[in-house]
């Protein structure tokens, strides 16, 4: 447990994971994986699959896929 505690980062503005932009355009961006989704309603309704897939890709390959999930 000490190792886990030591690996925790301070919670501050720079550690945000996602941005939800609702005006003047609509987009959700995951800052860790660079994944962007334009269908905001789908994500707010609970469909996080594009972000989950991108995060798993990041963990497996060590780099962000950079894929744009808005398509």
Question: What is the strand and helix layout of this fold?
Answer:
Blueprint: H1 2-7, E1 18-21, E2 27-30, E3 35-37, H2 40-44, H3 49-61
Antiparallel strand pairs: 1-2, 2-3
Could you characterize what this model shows?
- The structure is a single chain.
- The protein is an alpha+beta fold and 71 residues long.
- The chain has one domain.
- It is 34% helix and 15% strand.
- The protein is built from three helices and three strands.
- The chain has helices spanning 2-7, 40-44, 49-61, and strands spanning 18-21, 27-30, 35-37.
- Strands 1-2-3 form a three-stranded antiparallel β-sheet, covered by helices on one side.
- A hairpin with a 5-residue loop joins strand 1 (18-21) and strand 2.
- The longest helix is centred in the last third of the chain and has 13 residues, at 49-61.
- It is globular, with a radius of gyration of 14 Å.
- It starts with a helix and ends in a 10-residue tail after the last helix.
Distance between the termini: 41 Å
Q: What is the overall shape? A: globular
Helix content: 25-40%
Characterize the quaternary organization of these chains. Answer: single chain
Biggest beta-sheet profile: 3 strands, antiparallel
Average pLDDT score: 86
Low-confidence stretches: none
Q: Give the structural class.
A: alpha+beta
Quickly count the helices: 3
Strand content: 15-25%
Tally of strands: 3
Count of distinct structural domains:
1
